[in-house]
Structures are given as structure tokens and as C-alpha cells.
Amino acid sequence: MPGAGFINNLKHYSLAWALVVSVILHAVLVGFLHPFKFNTPIQKPPLTIEIVQPKPEPPAEVVAPPEPQKQEPPKPEPKPEPPPIKKPTPPKPIEQPAPAKVPDTPPPAGPPRSEPPAPPVISAAPKVEEPPPTFTAPPPPPEPPKLVGPTEADIESARQAYGNSLSREISKHKRYPRIAQMRGWEGTVRLLLEIDTNGKVVSVKVEEASDREVFNTEALEMVKRMVQPPPIPDTLRGRSFTVRVPISFRLE
Q: CA 246 to CA 163: how far, in whole Å?
């Protein structure tokens, strides 16, 4: 006799086949009752386009412009008649008096009268006037020779040029203060230098000080480090003068 496992497997297979057959029968039944309709493509009606031509508009009526009114020409004004010209009347003739009649009686006879003789004319020789003596002034004394020297403009130009050369010479001895370099300080100091007739620096002072005292001190020390100032120009020789020298401290 077959075992229990075989019987169980047979039951399972029979149930499965029964289920499949049932599904097939139901599908056939539904197909008969409700037949499947496949979707057929819907044919769209053809699209027709009609071109309608616009009706021509009736031509616009041409309105003739109104005729301009004829203006009558202005009537000429009557010219004024010139006044009548009067004819000049001829002058009346001047009546001259009739000449007097001389009597025909002759003059009485007698001795003829003798006229007195004319006085003799004495002619004197004209005097010759002598010219007055001329006075000649002595010539003026010769003017002393003028000394030709430089003008104020020349002196000022030479002083500015010497100040620039002196500033370059002083800047060679610059030592940037260490504390100012560490803290990033910058500034400008203006010095006033007095130069004697030999071109030597007599005195130096701070004319415009900086906010940082280290810059003022360093500017004075720079002048002291300068061994020999640049030679002065010929225009400034033999005279004392002052020079302004700006010293700038800038971090590069």
C-alpha cells in the first residue's frame, strides 16, 4: 500500500488541478457572456480649410476741394496831382541916375600954382644884429659802473635747488626707528637749517614736528651724521641763508 506521504501529495495535486480547471471554465464563461472588444483606432474626420477672400472695399469717394474764391484786384489809388509851378517874375530894371551936366564956363585965368618940393629921403644903413653868446654846459661826470648781481628770483631758485640736494644728502643717513617700524608708524618732519657764508650748517631746529617724538629725534640725528654738506651754488656764495628740508619716514 502506498504511504501516507504519497496520499498527501496526490491530494495536493488534485486540488491544484481542480483550481486550474475552475479558473479556465470561468474564463470561458465570461468570454461567451461578454465578448472582448479590441480597441480600434478612431478615424478622425479630415480637416478641410477654406480660404475666404475678403470682399473688396468700395473705393472712397474723392471729394473735390472747394474752389478758391476769386479776389478782386485792389483798385489803384488816384495819384495826387502835383501843385502848379509858379513862374518866377522877372526883376524890375534899376533906374540909373542921369549924369550931372558940367558947365561949359572955362576956369579963371591966373598963374599956375606950384606944389612944394618933397623933403629929401635920408636912407640909413641897416644895423646888423650880433647873435647872443652861446653857453655850453660842461659834460656830466661819468656814472660809476653798476654791479650786476643775481636777482631775488635767481636767489630763491638757487636756494630751493640747494635745499633739494641737501635733503638727498641727509636722507642717506636715515635709520628708521625700530619701535616705529614694529608698530607701523609713519610721519614727516620739517627741519630749518641755517647756512653761513662758507656753506657750513650753523644751526638746525625742528620747524614742523611729527606726532611721534622718535621721528623728530631721528631727523636731528641724521643732520649730525652728515659729514660734509653739498657745495653751495655760485649764486649763494658770500651770503648766509636758511633752507627748509623735509624728512619723510615711510614704510616700504
A: 9
Whole-number CA gyration radius for the chain: 74
Give me the half-sphere count of Cα atoms (radius 13 Å) on the Cβ side of residue 197. 2
Grade residue 126 by pLDDT with cuts at 50, 70 and 90.
Answer: low
Closest to 170 in 3D by CA, of 178, 182, 162: 162
User: What residues contact 170, with CB distance under 8 A and at least 6 apart?
Assistant: 222, 223, 226, 245, 247
Q: For the chain, what are the domain ranges? A: 154-249
Closest CA to 181 of 252, 86, 96: 252
Collapsing DSSP states into helix, strand and coil, what is residue 250?
Answer: coil
Kindly list the distances between the CA atom of residue 181 and the CA atoms of 91, 176, 177, 206, 251, in Å, as whole numbers in the listed order: 126, 7, 6, 22, 7
Cβ neighbour number for residue 176 with a 10 Å cutoff? 16
| pLDDT at site 144 | 63
Helix, strand, coil shares of the chain as percentages rounded to 5? 30, 10, 60
- How far apart are the two ends of the chain, measured CA to CA in Å? 116
pLDDT at 215 over 90: yes
Cell of 206: 625742528
**Which grid coordinates are listed for 39?**
480597441
pLDDT at 38: 47
| CATH class held by domain 154-249 | alpha beta
Q: 180-205 pLDDT, tens per residue?
A: 999 999 999 999 999 888 888 889 99
